[in-house]
Amino acid sequence: MPSSHHIVVVGGGVAGLAIASKLPRTAGRTPIAVTLIDREPAYVWKPMLHAIAAGTSDFSQQETNYIAQARDRHFVFHPGELKGTIVMRRGFGSVL
Predict the structure, then answer these.
(1) If residue 67 lies in a helix (H) or strand (E), which one and from where to where?
(2) How far apart are CA 43 and CA 6, in angstroms?
(3) Please, are residues 38 and 11 in contact by the beta-carbon 8 Å criterion?
């Protein structure tokens, strides 16, 4: 069934990743397509950077790969960044 709504989340930080991961599952009967856009291929949990820097934690244990997360949580990941937006008569456009 094609999605009647498409939501684009720009930035895969704590909030962006949580929204992209949970939204497709909480939409109920309304099909929603979700796309996450971030310039990095993975998210690193920032509060653990001190442990990574000290060598007490492995970098790979503290990162979430966006492609793997997208596959598991039913959203699409596109590498990139938002350069600007264009306000149109109906909806928004973007410059990626």
Answers:
(1) helix 66-73
(2) 23
(3) yes
CA distance 42 to 23: 19
Worst-scoring range by mean pLDDT, 31-40, 42-51, 66-75? 42-51
Structure token digits, residue 66: 């966006």
Bridge partner residues of 65 (DSSP): 42
For residue 37, count other CB atoms closer than 10 A to its CB. Answer: 21
Predicted model pTM: 0.76
SS3 state of residue 20: helix
- For 61-75, how does the pLDDT look when each residue is reduced to its tens digit (9 = 90+)? 778 899 999 999 999
Is the per-residue pLDDT at 59 higher than 70? no
Q: Please state whether beta strands 76-79 and 32-38 pair in parallel, antiparallel, or not at all (unpaired).
A: parallel
End-to-end CA gap in the chain = 28
